[in-house]
Amino acid sequence: MSPLDAAGAGRYRRLVRPLSFSGVGLHSGLECSLRILPAEGGIVLASEGQEAPLEALALSGSGRGSDYLFPDGRRVRTCEHVLAALTGLGVWGARLEVDGGEMPALDGCAARVGAAVMENSEPCGEAPAPLSLSASLRVGDESRFVVAFPAEGLHVTCVVRYDAPVIGVQMLEFSWSAEGFLERVARARTFAMAREIEALRAQGLALGGTLDNAILVEGASARASGGLHWPDEFVRHKALDLIGDLAALGRPLCAHLVAVKAGHELHLQMAERLRALVKRQA
Description:
Helix 1 runs parallel beside helix 2 (about 110-120). A hairpin with a 2-residue loop joins strand 17 (about 215-220) and strand 18 (about 220-225). It is built from six helices and 19 strands. The chain is of the alpha+beta class. It is about 20% helix and about 30% strand. It starts with 11 loop residues before the first strand and ends with a helix. Strands 11, 12, 13, 14, 15 and 19 form a six-stranded mixed β-sheet that branches. Strands 2-3-9-4-5 form a five-stranded mixed β-sheet, covered by helices on one side. Strands 6-7-8 form a three-stranded antiparallel β-sheet, covered by helices on one side.
């Protein structure tokens, strides 16, 4: 029997001991650290003396990652991979303590944190009440968009299209389970186009990016430590980002999400629409 099915409670999990991680930030290139502590009643982000539940914080997806902003303007950068590791495994109670202003890049995906979460958590039947939809929601335009349709459970359809031949057009369909997240999504790493690197670094971005935590794409080639995990690792990473970005809702979501050529900015726009729906239902 899978550990996710133990005691008939494989849908959600709770942490049973603290976890600690450290390393450079993907964008800042500076040393930063993260402690994930067991907690009840939602996910709380704490940094530099500030703390708040995820759903209470402002969002920014315009800097090649998902940032959470405290009321005084301070932010924690690049939160999506850690949040995907937690919520992708069904953990909706945790306290995240961040030093350095950014989550450690680690492996550029959710595999390392996800493995630690799985090893140091147990099945449970408790989580914040899921949000269910009675009508569809849409953000974006005709060419790039995210649509959320009413559904039972969480289902994701992602489509990407890039000029680089090594990517081209890719599609992933994924119905959420913690086990499926670990097997199909968690190891998909972030990626960047070689032609963008100089401009990104001039903007103070990607300063901590290496072939150990990212895939570098140039035409028909893709370079990364150990090579690609899957030929379609790129669209799988987009699904990882989407799951992590929607953690901003602060609770599980029952919906079929269709994301076409989307990224953090559109993901977080959808999260804001869903937050507004929760407030109207309260």
